[in-house]
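Workshop exercise sheet. Pairs work together: one partner reads the sequence aloud, the other fills in the structure field after running the prediction. Swap roles for the next sheet.
Pair: D.N. / O.F.
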Amino acid sequence: MKKIVIFLIILFMLINISIITLAVENENLDSVYLQATNTEIRNGEEFSFTINLANIDVAAFDIQIYFNNELLEYVSGPENTNVIGSKIITVWYDETGGANPKQNCELVKYTFKAKEIESEYIAIQGEFYNSEGVQVQSFTDGIEIIANKETQIETIEISEESEVASNNSRLKNLRLNHEGMTPVFSPDVTEYYFLTENLSQLDVTAIPENTNANVTISGNTNFKEGLNIIVIEVTSPDKTSKTQYTISVTKTKDLEKANANLETLAIENVTIEPEFANDIYQYHAIVSNTTENLNILAIPEKQNVKVEVTGGENLQYGDNAVNIQVMAENGYTIKQYKVNVYRRNDEEQKIADEEQKINIQKLNAILEEQEEGEEQNTSNNSIIENLEENLWFVIIYSIFSIIIVILVIYRIKKEKMDKNKKSVR
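Structure field:
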């Protein structure tokens, strides 16, 4: 009898300790963690980071990364990754239905290249599911990338530049001695805009990708009231290629009448990338093989502004240029918004339809797993929340359980002693 009582005591204690510590143990598991290479980098250098697993099995996940694509360039990542402007989406699920989950491993690796940064933050979010579709972990973290101020050795720069093709006539950098030039410089963008009330000139710094290229700058002094054009012409070292960059400088006392920004730019039933912003002037879009004409909506920020749309009709297979010219109220400030529209041919459309069908099936499967996982996760969370809310009850229950066991032991022992006394008599 004594052994049975001791066993009951131990059993009660183990049960109650397990109940109390269940939620705490689940919280302490470091299931998903982030690792990064050197985060102090020079412009032009690459860096990587990984998301790793420990202590859990993952049969599906959804990871979203947010970064500034004007300061950082996405280089590589997992195969099942889509890049939309400044957002990266990676979705994966185990095609065997959870028989081969990911566990204790480097889950994904992403590589970026710095363009021109001082400090930039990459935000990362993720949701991870087990083979039953239950969310086992949510993840929010980030990485701060800082520019390495250490001066680069001149000989290294020269050797790197010498590898640039002799017919290269592009700029590597273009900047002014005053802020306000839009859009942000890119070697592929050749038209820029600047607005001033009283400046009579601007200092222009234009650095070519090939240091042997010839750069000429004109029109950056003696600004008159109205529109002034700065021309930067780059001639390749072998003189076979020329690229002309322009900065349209509007000098005016009435800045409101110089507003040539669009408030809205959209194409019916077509997604343009990147997402529209009034200081982004180049976009691209893909349309189906049956699309011949576009319905373009271009609304300016100010009234009495003229908007002229060219292109968008009788689309040919392949690339089609759509140009939206906006002229401000003053009659001379002009901005050009451009959309490159790619029309698929019949074969390309067939492939795209098949890919879309597969993606929809995958997405539906993930959504079904997520719904099931959310229901299960809600149930599990309710149990843990109830335990946490009733923690004092559990503790008091444990104490009373121990007291009851002690009383039972005392009662049994007393009865045994009384029985022995009667035997002696």
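Discussion prompt: The longest helix spans residues 346-389. What would you look at next?
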